[in-house]
Amino acid sequence: MTIDLRTYQHSAINQVRAAYQARRRAVLLVAPTGSGKTVMFSYIASSAVDRGGRVLILAHRQELIRQTSRTLAAFDVAHGLILPGHPATEDAVQVASVQTVVRRLERLDWQPTLIVVDEAHHATRTTGHGRVLAHFDTARVLGVTATPQRLDGQGLGTVAGGFFESLVSGPTVQELVTAGYLSRPVVYAPPGAPDLSGVRRIGGDFAAGELAAVVDRPTITGNAVTHYARYCPGQPAIVFCASVAHAEHVAAAFSLAGYQAASIDGTMDDTTRAGRIADLGTGALQVLTSCEIISEGTDIPVVGAAVLLRPTQSLGLYLQQVGRALRPFPGKTHATILDHVGNCHRHGLPDDDRVWTLEGRKRRKADPAPDLAVKQCPACYTVHRPRPACPSCGFVYPASVRVVREVDGELAEIQRSAARDAAKREQKDAKTLEDLRRIGAARGYHPGWAERVHAARQGRQPMSRASQ
Ligand SMILES: [Zn+2]
Question: Are residues 240 and 332 in the same domain?
Fold first, then answer.
């Protein structure tokens, strides 16, 4: 089978080639989840082999290795696997677990001409990737990732102590949505997000144990069930949790509310785990909860909702979680994202255009912080790009309302301020004393209010309160 490429895949691959022709050794291809990164690098690997090259594809998770192997097989690209328990083969393409290659480095009498690094944001000099790339220091390198930065925000370029010399930007999420390759994300952030000020940061993200203690609460869980029932009842949904126990509690709450729900975790045997994932695909389960990323190898396009109950400082993790719901599926009009933990305010909307560099994600001066680049509807909690009205429910923002955060009290404040502004407008539009009296009566104002306003407009001294 020949590899049928989409237009943007062609263009990305041509840019990668141009970078190598410009004598860059290590190129980083950035493209969102769902853009077909595996297809693109399989194509590049296959072309390299056609020209007599040898390709080593590195991945750090079993699911990704299996997924890559399946894609290569679909394209009739012969390949071997460098994995425990797999005998070595002579194939020109080898798909490898990083850890296994590291263990066999000294014994391998095989020199790749191209090394593909999947999920390249894990590739740093101190990880196994670093040892493999240093060992084969004449091979070209192609890194692929959706988020080209480490957890601490550092870039992956040589300028930031990483490997890559050139960055190629693939399509944006918005472009993929427009072209129909991804579903449009609609984000709701109902009030009640937990206060994380007391949670420590470890290794760039919230400390897992402390996080679970803050988010594993009946109020937050109840809120998630309520809003699932309101916005996407019965839709196949994945709920991202902060611990195994948290995932179990949340599944129990959804079950109690009458939904078919279950949790999965790493302690389960493969059959149970795979069975529950399959059940979500067939509709036997409506809600699947987990504290781990449900990996790319287990994509279930029918999933139309992602419920975020695990706050994260990692933009990559956030985008991966949301990405689980973005696969297109017949009849799916959009993907519902229920963010109960403030991730969209921390990182912006899933389909924001992001500017990536090899230095890391520096916010340009002109770019607002993520929570200022979004507006939140006080009526339905949709989080969206600033515009005069809510795209979900049509709520019209009074001109002076400031940008909203998700905190309950502030939402109430926004509603008050919206009401105040509406009241002022109504009053300004009231032309006659009669109109003003009607408004005053409707609002329960003092009987003299209309006369006072009217008199002030005529430039007369209003009567004193005492005389009214
Ligand atoms: Zn709305």
Answer: yes
